[in-house]
Write a structure and sequence with these properties.
The protein is mostly helical and 71 residues long. The chain has one domain. The protein is built from 3 helices and no strands. The N and C termini lie far apart (58 Å).
Length: 71
Amino acid sequence: MENKKNSDMETVPAKLTARLVAEMEEIIKQGWYANKSELIRDAIRELIKKQRVAQLESAIEEDIQWGLYGK
């Protein structure tokens, strides 16, 4: 029977520069991540979180502008 965790995973091909790969390998070598997949998943989660915060901040700013100036 296939592991539930693995069955939820999808492979997404991506091309990376040699420099990015070298940087990733150095971070892994330092023990921050077990492998490239773990590092990439974490980086994408952080990017998504950052984007959501930016969208929320933008919406709040628009609400403030509307409340202050009706714009």
